[in-house]
Amino acid sequence: MRVADQQIFGQVVSQFQQISQKTLEAQLQASTGKRVSKPSDDPVAFGRIVLDQTDLAQTNQWLRNIDSGTTRLASADNALGQVDTILSRIKELAVSARSDTNTANDRNLIAKEVRELHRELIQLSNTEINGQRIFAGTKTDTDPFVLGSNDTVTYAGNSETQSIAVGRNQSLQVTVPGDQIFTGATTNVFDSVKNLLAALESNNGSGIETGIGTLDQAITQVAAARGQVGALDNRLTTTQAALQGTVQLVQTSLSKDQDIDLAEAITNLTRQQTALQAAASSANALFDNSLLKFLKT
Amino acid sequence: MSGISNLFNIGTSSLFAFQESLSVTAHNIANVNTKGYSKQDVILSETLPLNGRPGQIGTGVEVKTIKRNVDLFVNSQILSSKQQLGKNGASQNALSNIESLFDDSKNQSLGTGLNDFFNAIQDVSTDPSNVTARSVLLSKAQTLTDRFHQADTTLTAQRQSLDQEVDHSITTINSLAKQIADLNDKISQAELSGQNANDLRDQRQQVVNSLGEQINVATVEDGTGQLSVFVGSGQSLVEKNRVHTLSGVANSSNSGLLDVDYNGGGTPVSISSVISGGRLKGLLDARDTTIPATLTKLDALASNLVSEVNTQHKLGYGLDGSTGLNFFTSSGVTAKSILVSLTDGKKVAASDSAAGVPGNNVNALALGNLQHKSITALGSVTLNTYYQTTVSDVGSAAQQASQDLEAQQNLQDQLDAQWSQISGVSLDEELVHMLTFQRAFEASSKVVVMADELMQTILTLKR
Predict the structure, then answer these.
(1) Which residue of B has its CA nearest to A46?
(2) In terms of CB atoms within 10 Å, which end of chain B has fewer, N or C?
(3) pTM for the whole thing?
(4) Which CATH class is domain A52-253?
């Protein structure tokens, strides 16, 4: 086989180019830590990466939704805890007022404190986060519990619940409307306090007795509502844990498609560099062997 | 009868022959780095002998011909490889430009835009009365439409730049055709007078190869050494020393992009569709097939996004009680024309019942769920999956183009090596030839000296 000089040069150049290109690719992979940075690097993996990134964005959004739901439920739980304390305090006062040793004046004094507590209840039932009333159903822009004349409280909210997205076509309830807690269900919390107030002020012993009975019902109802809030929160927490698991899985899968094994990348880079050096020294030897070197005239 | 003068003649003939051989060797060495130069060989032959006794006696040497070392088969393979190489190179270049549009590494892609848009809808759903979340949704929607516009602009700009390359390629083809015609002329004139137009033929082969890089080419050489060149589906580009030009003509039914017209005398005809190789083929494919296909997919994505979102959005109610409103502008939606119609965040229809229930998020949840809806018009896949398929398609095509180019380049390298084995100059070989001819030249001059001495001897006989 004849070997022409252009062939030698051409081959050396093309080898250098090939090795240089591979070295550059290896360097890019080692420096970015990414195996796939454009679709053509690995179309199948890139497709998975796009979908995984969508999954990741969605799942993180669901986790974000859950955070906002948890905040709402936590403040509902907190408010209902205080409602419970206040109702218990009212009951305590009512029990102490029940005894007929109390004078009309004594009962009037107790009534004053109960009225204060009644107002506090209203405040709690109008608890808001960022200006949104949490016990108003979906009518969140105005106070759901409005104080009228004669200690009457009316519900201005609605019975709708609010849900948040926590998964593919999956949503969880994050509010309990106020009518279920305070005015609806079995007993009207505000009415029971109002009736007690009237009994206290009119010095009506049997009325106080009845009041204590309905107060017990009210306490049970609020406790039930609090339980519901807890259950909702629980579901959010469970879902959150599952979603966090998903995030990890997706991240693992993303990393598998996208990231390189650094050890492998660096080994590869070193290999290419060695190849480049070998090509350089062998080219040197090749050019050194010309007949010209021996023709000294 | 052979006399001393014959010795002089023999010596002179060999001095001339070896001097000429040395010239050819020098010419070979001089062109060791000339692209496409084929090594030339001197073919020596005995001159006509003289009749004599006891028989014919030789009269020396002459240069019979100077031959260029070529293998027509390898040359024709190189020409066809060049056509493929030109096409693959143009395709690969165009596709790698297109795929950079979908590069997700900077989170600037359409896919990210889609995700952000649907996440913003969910933010509205978790806090439907929050005006800020609604404004954010509108701005994310705006960003998403910007991404669509940007994709459209980029792809359209790429079509334009490919079009300029088409124009450039046409100009190159015409200029190469002219060169071939000129060389045809020179070669036929030289060979008519019995010369070997070695160097001119090398040059012409180079030009034909360059032409092959631009467009598919077929060649036929006639008896006078002139090359007829055909392009496309057999349109004659060069005929002896005549050239028929190609020209780029704006095609109004293809966004004013250039058609390749052939001017063969009479009405120019478009040969865009029959070009089957070379850069032009790669450019036309990318410009008229690959990019429009990608654009069509992006248009489908935009129009389905708009129709799905609008349909659901119209069912709901805004914070201000507005209903039946389009979220995006609805008619004739393409990636280029997609626009957000809402300007007031309060009008985002998150609620499924009329005014007064700012906490109602039922419609916002439904809007958010559109991200997971299989859309029949997109082949029963979700918006995200459709986008992913589009990206994967471009990625596969780009990968394929790169691999094709690499394979073709390898083939070309092999052909170049084959060509070099036959036609390339080896300096070592030339040096050996040079020594051989030099020694022969020295010996020949000794023959002349010897003949002179013989003559001297004869002349002194008289004294």
Answers:
(1) B392
(2) C
(3) 0.81
(4) mainly alpha
